[in-house]
């Protein structure tokens, strides 16, 4: 189980817990990618993976992973020359998608 970090409410995850979190994150990303490639792109299809992601990872980690993924996707669009002015403006005011922040409904 996780240990408390000097009483500040933080958790120090054991290696096995970190690996479980990373695996859940990767499974959720893979599900989202499969939806993106097939054109459906709906996060609803990935609710099982999203629930596991939220159960396995601390909230702060989830926020970090989501921001990083969104940035990496944005960077990829820029590098391919596919980013529009709208994409650039929306990325400047990026916020974590509701379904990723709050977990599955």
TrEMBL record:
Cellular component, GO annotation: mitochondrion
Domain of life: Eukaryota
Subcellular location, record wording: Mitochondrion
Annotated GO biological process: mitochondrial ATP synthesis coupled electron transport; respiratory chain complex IV assembly
Keyword Disulfide bond: yes
Keywords from the named record: Disulfide bond, Mitochondrion
Primary localization class, coarse: mitochondrion
Pfam family, one: COX6B
Protein name as annotated: Cytochrome c oxidase assembly factor 6 homolog
Lineage: Eukaryota, Metazoa, Spiralia, Lophotrochozoa, Platyhelminthes
């Amino acid at each position: 189980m996780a240990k408390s970090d000097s009483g500040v409410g933080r958790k120090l995850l054991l290696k096995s817990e970190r690996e479980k979190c990373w695996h859940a994150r990767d499974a959720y990303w893979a599900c989202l990618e499969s939806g993106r490639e097939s054109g459906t792109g709906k996060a609803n299809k990935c609710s099982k993976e999203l629930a596991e992601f939220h159960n396995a990872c601390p909230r702060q980690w989830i926020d970090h992973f989501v921001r990083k993924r969104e940035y990496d996707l944005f960077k990829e669009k820029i590098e391919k020359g596919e980013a529009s002015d709208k994409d650039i403006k929306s990325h400047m005011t990026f916020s974590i998608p509701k379904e990723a922040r709050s977990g599955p409904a």
